[in-house]
Amino acid sequence: MTSGAILAGGRSTRFGDADKSVAPIAGVPMIRRVANRLAGTDDPVPPGAERAGGGDSVVDELVVNCRPDQREAIEEALSGVSLPVRWALDEEPDLGPLAGIRNACRAASEPYAVVVACDMPFVDPSFLAALRETAADPGVDAVIPRLDDRWYQTTQAVYATGPAADACDRALDRGDRKILAMADQLEAVVVDDEAIRSLTTERTFTNVNTQSELDAAERAVAAALGAE
């Protein structure tokens, strides 16, 4: 059993005045695209197009981490989503994604959470399913991809909710807000670049941080749908 934790509490400073989590991509709010891909109800856009649009969910619930002032807009964006939604609000905002992961793991009802940032609209659900399968191995607390064998993708990873939340607390208590400060305390499996590319493409990690990146994402969706 797995929770899908979507991190949306950042300030989106490079995006402008708007909250990027609900910015539309081809008419669908970005966070809804992430939620739909986890639920298997999104447009069949690669990578993982068949799983993304095939009605086969990779998680049993959604846990949304955001600031209290974001909730109304995000709740509207997620209206009618096919999975139950739990809320993990940042009562103390601006502590960064480490606190977001901690809050999401505390709110999750399942023993593992697939964590995805809200600005990853091309997240590959089949890849997430493979990470979750690895997390089922005995003694594994986290499964973290490492793109190009350099860049840890800590906001598209799987964590054991209890151990991860406790490790986040310890890191935050000592004033360390780096996600790796939490991951270093866990029994983690690092998925190397060769394994990543055998399962998906690096597009799964694409972030939308600016208006120009939003435009590029919209073009990518339109191109994928036009090629059907």
UniProtKB/TrEMBL annotation:
<keyword id="KW-0963">Cytoplasm</keyword>
<dbReference type="GO" id="GO:0005525">
    <property type="term" value="F:GTP binding"/>
</dbReference>
<keyword id="KW-0460">Magnesium</keyword>
<dbReference type="GO" id="GO:0016779">
    <property type="term" value="F:nucleotidyltransferase activity"/>
</dbReference>
<dbReference type="InterPro" id="IPR025877">
    <property type="entry name" value="MobA-like_NTP_Trfase"/>
</dbReference>
<keyword id="KW-0547">Nucleotide-binding</keyword>
<keyword id="KW-0501">Molybdenum cofactor biosynthesis</keyword>
<keyword id="KW-0342">GTP-binding</keyword>
<protein>
    <submittedName>
        <fullName>Molybdopterin-guanine dinucleotide biosynthesis protein A</fullName>
    </submittedName>
</protein>
<dbReference type="InterPro" id="IPR029044">
    <property type="entry name" value="Nucleotide-diphossugar_trans"/>
</dbReference>
<keyword id="KW-0808">Transferase</keyword>
<dbReference type="Pfam" id="PF12804">
    <property type="entry name" value="NTP_transf_3"/>
</dbReference>
<dbReference type="InterPro" id="IPR013482">
    <property type="entry name" value="Molybde_CF_guanTrfase"/>
</dbReference>
<feature type="domain" description="MobA-like NTP transferase">
    <location>
        <begin position="4"/>
        <end position="182"/>
    </location>
</feature>
<dbReference type="GO" id="GO:0006777">
    <property type="term" value="P:Mo-molybdopterin cofactor biosynthetic process"/>
</dbReference>
<dbReference type="GO" id="GO:0046872">
    <property type="term" value="F:metal ion binding"/>
</dbReference>
<keyword id="KW-0479">Metal-binding</keyword>
